[in-house]
Design brief:
The protein is mainly beta and 94 residues long. 0% of the residues lie in helices and 45% in strands. The protein has no helices and 8 strands. Strand 1 and strand 2 form a beta hairpin.
Amino acid sequence: HGPYVVASPDLFIPNVFSPNGDGVNDNFLVNYTGSQNFLLQVFDRWGVMTYQSNNKTKGWDGTNEDGLAVPDGIYYYKVITGNKEFAGSITLVR
């Protein structure tokens, strides 16, 4: 098991990140090289959306809409590329 979950040839989704400012894995960044529409949504364990972006080059930095750091733990993501949808979990470790 590596640090990535391979979802399709043009999509790599990491399963852990550590937004602690050390410059390594500070963002949950989905690596999508395709050209179709892209949407990333991140939810907490209660299903509350914590982050959303359609910019495939901008990752989630582990903060909520107010810019406050969210707690360590497991979060859930949904990635939509064109007409395909991928879902899974991401572990945030500070």
